[in-house]
Amino acid sequence: MIKRHLPFATVAVIALVAAPLLLEPFRLGLLAKYLCYAIVALGIGLAWGQGGMLTLGQGVFFGLGGYSMAMYLKLNEAGPGGLPDFMVWSGVEKLPALWAPFASPVFAVGMAVLGPVLLAVLLGTLVFRQRVRGAYFAILTQALAAAMVILLVGQQGLTGGTNGMTNFFELFGQDLADDSTQRGLYLVVASVLGILYLATRQLVHSRYGRLLVAVRDGEDRVRFLGYDPALVKTVTFAASAGMAGLAGALFVPVVGIISPALLGVVPSLELVVAVAVGGRHALAGAVLGAVVMGYAKTAFSEQFADGWLYLQGALFILVMTLAPKGIVGVVGRLRRARTT
Amino acid sequence: MAAFLNQLPIGLSIGAVLLLIALGLTFTFGQMGVINMAHGEFIMAGAYTAYLMGGLLPALPVAFLVAGVMGLILERAAIRHFYGRPLDTLLLTWGVSLVLQQLARDLFGAPNVQVPAPSWLAGGVGILPYNRLFIMGLAVAGVVAVWVYLTRTGLGRRTQAVVQNRQLAATSGIDTGRVDMLTFFIGSGLAGVAGVALTLIGPVGPALGTYYIVDAFLVVVAGGLGQLRGAVLAAVALGLLNSYAEFWSDASLAKVIVFAVIIAFLQVRPQGMFVLRSRVLT
Q1: What does the mean pLDDT of chain B come to?
Q2: Residue B281 above 60 pLDDT?
Q3: SS3 B280
């Protein structure tokens, strides 16, 4: 029992105690960003690794969460009756009706999770009921991500267009530029990730989790046994969407910006690849992959911006051909090689 | 009314380009279960071929060869190890596509380049500009060539057999590996031709392929896997839908409308317009 929980406990202590003490604020902020991505990756690990649904549109859900949060922050700073800065620049004179409810923090945070969940339930019901799956599903989610970006860029007055929204100063009365606020945010992100990880692991080990894996490996057979695979998949897809939404809402105060470039086809795919690099069949692999790839991207693109794309491309080709089970798979193989 | 009619050649020519792109995808996808994200970069390679050669007509066969050989190399070097794992090929080929885009950026520079349109394509008849007509003609020629190949040549009939049932085809003595290579070559070559066509309606940049690849995959989804008829109908429909959705709403909503229409369409025909009947169950 203790042995089973030891790895998680060790990582949790490092993340919650050691990292805030040892890392300088800038690095801690970066780590908080990677952990936000790790929350999205956890959802991908659940939907793709366990459920076999390759979702290439998690950026959409991440974006819905991020934009909800950003709308609240902007309205809060503009004050009652005020307009967000970018609306003034693009000549909007009256607050759009869509924006009004986001002045309430409860509504904004609620929508950051509920919005993605509802969209995923709608899409999942329409798609999975018709037994559209596999590559078709992947293509559809990718098309959704592409459409979402074009919509956000085009609706300048509502969304801030290409630039998105930035310049956030305070969150729930706390100064966002302050180091202690950022440290607090980091702790929140790390805790949310930890809790979601435990909950997802519980889910995967439950009867429902077995059913999900069964749907992945033989959907028709599961149907013949009297289950409803569409329902199982929709619920999982919605859960992963909710996680992505929550991650988006956390991302905005941590990083201080949300823009279409952060949630299009490419960022969505990058996270899927991070999950593949970490190891898609293990939830820990998804989290690990997101952190490793996030770090690698910062480290390499700081030094040689152009080389990063070559490196990233080459990395996927290598991982997909040589180690389809990712880092977790390689570690597992090494461990078995040592014991035998 | 005039504005309404003006959208027609735009929609049709976008449909024609999508068709040239989707022809390759629908067969690699339908026949081998490969989702080739690098297909967009074959379009880009074709467009840069036209840029380097400066002439439209001589560029067509060369672009076909350049893109076709690129596809062939990709298939032999990487993809053939992935048959039966469609979702993995998607990620693998995306990696390839990233590398190719960066390569184009290093070779030709990041800014877009313009290929001068030949003077004999200036002007037009009525609402139909010659350059758009040329693109439509190219797509028609492509479809006819593929149709002739599939139905009138021995290799093409073997290709059809592999699309319909790979195992049975293999046991009947068809060299499926060779058929796969050839399909990949032709499909990628057609993407190169589409790239040349695109130089007539816009500038060429390293990310050219990314603008069309998602729509081209939607054509495959809506048309049905490995179905020539389906690809033709779906490409034309999607091209028209795209341009008219932009016309009636605005450009930013158009893609959302297209997406909604496709989801609605899949409610009626979940496997696309035309379905290959089979009794295979997963």
Answers
A1: 84
A2: no
A3: coil
Q: Are B270 and A138 an interchain contact pair (Cβ–Cβ within 8 Å)? A: no
Distance CA B135, CA B194 (A): 8
- Helix, coil or strand: residue B114: coil
Interface of A with B in 114-153 (CB under 8 A): 123, 126-127, 130-132, 134-136, 138-140, 142-144, 146-148, 150-151, 153
List the structure tokens of A163: 């630039």
- A213: number of Cβ within 10 Å: 16
Best interface-test mutation with B: which of A139, A159, A312 has the largest number of B CBs within 10 A? A139
CA B90-A306-A274 angle, to 5 degrees, is 40
ipTM for this model: 0.83
Query: Could you tell me if B255 and A181 are in contact, meaning their C-beta atoms sit under 8 angstroms apart?
Result: no
Encode pLDDT of A27-48 as tens digits.
Answer: 788 888 899 999 999 999 999 9
Contact B198, B16 (CB under 8 A): no
Is the minimum CB–CB distance between A154 and chain B shorter than 8 Å? yes
Which of A5-9, A34-38, A152-156 has the largest mean confidence? A34-38
Q: Report how far residue A138's alpha carbon sits from residue A141's, in angstroms, rounded to the nearest whole number.
A: 5
Which domains does chain B show, CATH number per domain? Answer: 2-111+123-268 (1.10.3470)
User: What is the Cα–Cα distance from B255 to B276, expressed in whole angstroms?
Assistant: 28
Alpha-carbon distance A124 to A118, whole Å? 10
Kindly indicate the confidence band of residue A235, based on its pLDDT and cuts at 50, 70 and 90: very high
- Give the tens place of pLDDT for each residue, A261-279: 888 888 888 888 888 888 8
Distance CA B104, CA B44 (A): 9
